[in-house]
Amino acid sequence: MANEKFSHTPTELKLHRQQKMLEVSFDDDSHFELPCEYLRVFSPSAEVRIILGRGEVVLGKEDVNIERIEPVGGYAVQLHFDDGHHTGIYSWKTLYELGEKQSKNWLQYKVTRLEMQQAKPESGLKTLNMLYFVDFATKFRRESEEIKVPEKVNTVQLLLTHLCKRGKVWQECLGKGLVKVTVNRQFANPETTIKSGDEIALVPAPK
User: What pTM did the predictor assign?
Assistant: First the structure.
């Protein structure tokens, strides 16, 4: 029944960081091993629900991990992912259903992901070599990475706007006046043009 109260509770909730997997056991002896990527792309947050409702999926989360888990009352947990996403509240019912439907959901996700990637070929993207210095390296949990961005992201300001879509941590760090940018080791302004293969360094602005 749709309004039937969910009666099961977890007996174990264990995060395996190296395996990037959350292990959940329930009082009916159900046991699930849920990859962090799976939990991220099927987050119950409003923004992910909207994306799934359009028949799309969240892309680029193959390496995502969970930073910490916070209890919410006695009925749910809030998962904080290392890409900055933390607005999903995972009730016991949600975790149970994600476990039960994992095979079906995972297959649907991979098929949709492949369709979206084929619809948006690599030719429409450019590659940038990103470097993060001082506090940014700590907050972004990486010192460098190679990223692909749409060709239309062709200025420093558009790149910063694009990076802010990664989540709250990025928004807080890259807000107006909070970051200095170099392009190929030369200080840049918001209108500086960027092209494929450029080295972009982000440094916290002096306070």
Answer: 0.59
Whole-number Å distance between alpha carbons of 58 and 53: 12
DSSP notation for 104-143: HHHHHHHHHHHHHHHHS-GGGEEEEEEEE-THHHHHTT-S
Q: Is pLDDT above 80 for 42?
A: yes
Token look-up 């807000």 returns 175
The CATH 3.10.20.30 portion of the chain extends over 123-204
In which element (H, E) is residue 145 found?
A: strand 144-150
Residue 13 near residue 64, CB atoms below 8 Å: no
Instruction: For the domain made up of 10-119, give the CATH fold.
Output: NE0471 N-terminal domain-like (3.30.2020)
**Segments of the chain assigned to CATH 3.30.2020.30:** 10-119
Q: What CATH number belongs to 123-204?
A: 3.10.20.30
Contact call for residues 181 and 200 (beta carbons, < 8 A): yes
**How high is the pLDDT of residue 121?**
54
Residue 49 CB: number of other CB atoms within 10 A?
Answer: 13
Q: Is the pLDDT of residue 119 over 70?
A: no
Classified as helix, coil or strand, 148 is strand
pLDDT for residue 203 is more than 60: yes
Token reading at 81: 């992912």
